[in-house]
Amino acid sequence: MENKYDIIIIGTGTAGRTFAGKVSHSGLKIAIIDSRKYGGTCPLRGCDPKKVLIDITEVVDSSNRFVGKGVGTDTSLTIDWASLIEFKRTFTEEYPTKIEKRLVEMGIDTYHGRAYFENQNTIVVGEDKLKGEYIFLATGAKPRKLNIPGEEYITTSEGLMETKKLPERIIFIGGGYISMEFAHVVRRAGAEVIILHRSEKILKNFDPDIVDMLIKASEAAGIKILTNKPVISVEKENNGLLVRVKSKTETGSETQTFRADMVVHGAGRVADIEDLQLEKAGVKIEKGAIVVDKFMKTSNPRIYAGGDCALEGVQLTPVATLQGIIAAINVLEGDSIEADYTGIPSAVFTIPVMASVGISAPKDSDKYKVIFQDRSSWNTTRRAGIKFAASKVIIDEANDRIMGAHILGPHAGEAINIFAAVMRLGLRASDIKKLIFSYPTTCSDIPYML
């Protein structure tokens, strides 16, 4: 069956839903497609369920940090993994139905199935053919293929969040935010945890000085972080798994083995576009993602893209939201607005949280004023029972503008938003002190970071 639409959206994640909401009042005929349950990664298998696990972990860990410091020694808390997973499901189980119902109420036709292009304006999904005047691609991302023997034995973070019984020994492949966040959760739930990272530096997109402090906090929690350990295979062994890595030695390299009950993929994600047949639509791909300009337009002027499948921007929910808005405005009003990523923060929800916005710079930078503070002994850190905290602020002294901020410690996730707002509004670094002292918040340490 062939249907004609003014706008076709592929993907119901953050970018797709945002785009749909913006165009739904236009009076245009709109269709939306998804190959999985409606909602996308963030609410179903990413940010939101992950934060449920993290929030409960933080409650338990926070209580235990104060045992013997006002909390009785016989009141130590533990994580009940099975009930935690059941609680997590209360946030995800009904969400797809609610989202699809809401889209239908907007007047949008909904389709289910794996979509692909037949030509520049025709999409096939199941037995249906949809022709679109405009098309928005928001297909998201998926774990990258590791191309190693035994890859089929590796689970994903999504699989981990569906596991009813927590394995005793867990190995994470890769030193990105997925591995770090879940490592902090499962370690505090009682699992033995090892992170195997292929190169020298973990969390390479974050400030290295702040990352070093997070590594100390992670190791103090009992998480083993091993770098320069590329995984070359995973094998079944009795009731567990055998992980082989290649390690460099003075004379060359040697193979090391590690044993686990579960191996989790945390080695990065790539755009989920491989079977869209984008070449038939004239859509250019580079580095495994869809090339877009500042208007979110692809090489086909009638096709736009946003979110994790797009090459532009980083894989963050706020970026996907922004790109969905920008693309919708430009489809409805002509290419009239460009994406501006200034002041978009990111965070790694470990214990403690690490948050970042803007550029990084070494402590001895000759281009910027760099203020690094080890805040481990500050009262606000000690009151939270945290042993490791730090901040780094990068300032362009020529105009008193903050170029970057990086925080590890209590309230880092909230404090970074203040720096982000200051950067986005173009305020001066000196304005922060006036703002915080005038309007006290839980982030009252901020003036002392400058």
How are the SSEs ordered, and which strands pair?
Elements: E1 2-10, H1 14-23, E2 30-34, H2 41-45, H3 47-65, H4 81-92, H5 95-105, E3 109-112, E4 115-119, E5 122-125, E6 128-137, E7 141-143, H6 157-160, E8 169-173, H7 177-188, E9 192-196, H8 208-220, E10 223-226, E11 231-237, E12 240-249, E13 252-260, E14 262-265, E15 269-271, E16 285-286, E17 289-290, E18 303-305, H9 317-333, E19 346-348, E20 354-358, E21 369-374, H10 379-383, E22 390-396, E23 401-408, H11 412-425, H12 429-438, H13 446-449
Give a written overview of the molecule.
- With 450 residues, the protein is α/β, with parallel strands linked by helices.
- The chain folds into three domains: 2-143 and 270-333, FAD/NAD(P)-binding domain; 151-267, FAD/NAD(P)-binding domain (3-Layer(bba) Sandwich); 345-448, Enolase-like, domain 1.
- It has helices spanning 14-23, 41-45, 47-65, 81-92, 95-105, 157-160, 177-188, 208-220, 317-333, 379-383, 412-425, 429-438, 446-449; strands at residues 2-10, 30-34, 109-112, 115-119, 122-125, 128-137, 141-143, 169-173, 192-196, 223-226, 231-237, 240-249, 252-260, 262-265, 269-271, 285-286, 289-290, 303-305, 346-348, 354-358, 369-374, 390-396, 401-408.
- The strands form six sheets. Strands 1, 2, 3, 4, 5, 6 and 18 form a seven-stranded mixed sheet that branches. Strands 19-20-23-22-21 form a five-stranded antiparallel sheet, sandwiched between helices. The chain has a four-stranded parallel sheet with strand order 10-9-8-14.
- A hairpin with a 5-residue loop joins strand 19 and strand 20 (354-358).
- The protein starts with a strand and ends with a helix.
